[in-house]
Amino acid sequence: MKKYFAELLGTFVLTLMGCGAAVFAGIGLGTTGFGVTTLGVAFAFGLAVVAMAYTIGNISGCHINPAITTGVWASGRMSGKEALGYMLFQVIGAFCASAVIYFLVHSGNEAGLSAVFNNTTTTGANSYLPGNLVPAFVAEFIFTFIFVLVALATTDEKKGAGKFAGLAIGLALVLVHIVCIPITGTSVNPARSIGPAIFAAIEGNCTPISQIWLFIVAPILGALLSAIVWGALGNSKKEIAE
Predict the structure, then answer these.
(1) How far is residue 75's CA from residue 6's CA, in Å, rounded to a whole number?
(2) What's the whole-model pTM score?
(3) CB within 8 A of 15, min separation 6: which ones?
(4) Residue 119 banded pLDDT, cuts 50, 70, 90
(5) Cα(3)–Cα(227) distance, integer angstroms
(6) Under a CB-based contact definition with an 8 Å cutoff, are residues 165 and 52 in contact?
(7) Are 129 and 45 in contact (CB under 8 A)?
(8) Which of 17, 85, 156, 162 has the fewest CB atoms within 10 Å, measured from its CB?
(9) What is the Cα–Cα distance from 5 to 184, expressed in whole angstroms?
């Protein structure tokens, strides 16, 4: 259970910091914002990963993302049962963080504030504009592939980056966000998308929840491809954990 709780906590922090930066950068508490731009949001997500990597990495491996867990499982580094447990607690962590953001937005004078990105809401939910399904799917697929590939490579026992893995993974997430935010708000993480989408629906905006399938399917497929590619590059599979 320590591993599962660590994943819950890590995903909570990632979603709270990343989506929180996206939401409050746009809201600005009734002003024009505090200067947190796309780059700032990108670093919020990336730095959250770095912080959690060195906090819970030795406990659970700090996946905090169902896509990374999928890649790790597909690479033979963990059992299917444990992977499903990781994913469940990651979603719970993202849900709890989204609840906190929702409370912060709606508990004071900021209720009913307008959307931040494209069609997203004050929850930081992912979405894509009408007619952009194909570029959104391709973007989430490719950028998840790149992100998970970095995670698999840098955490490999024999060929990995050792103590620098957390830094490399966090910076990779920054790069992904810089490019992908204008397209989908950047998910590459189904848990991070599910939590905010639920609260977007509570606000009355059902667009994110109706599009949630893309932010689950595309990242999972991208993660599976990353496991195949890293395997082809010489990553030795470990025995599946019992």
Answers:
(1) 21
(2) 0.88
(3) 93, 94, 97, 98, 191, 192, 195, 196
(4) very low
(5) 22
(6) no
(7) no
(8) 162
(9) 29
Q: pLDDT digits over 22-49, tens only?
A: 887 754 444 444 556 788 899 999 999 9
Tokens matching residue 236: 């030795």
Closest to 123 in 3D by CA, of 96, 87, 86: 96
**What is the b/e burial string over 3-15, where b = at least 16 CB atoms within 10 angstroms of the residue's CB?**
bbebbbbbbbbbb
DSSP 8-state code for residue 77? S
Task: Using the Cα atoms of residue 219, residue 225, residue 226 and residue 227 in order, give the sign of their dihedral.
Answer: positive
Q: Comparing C-alpha atoms, which of 32, 42, 11, 70 is closest to residue 182?
A: 42
Whether the per-residue pLDDT at 168 is higher than 80: the answer is yes
d(CA 135, CA 203): 27
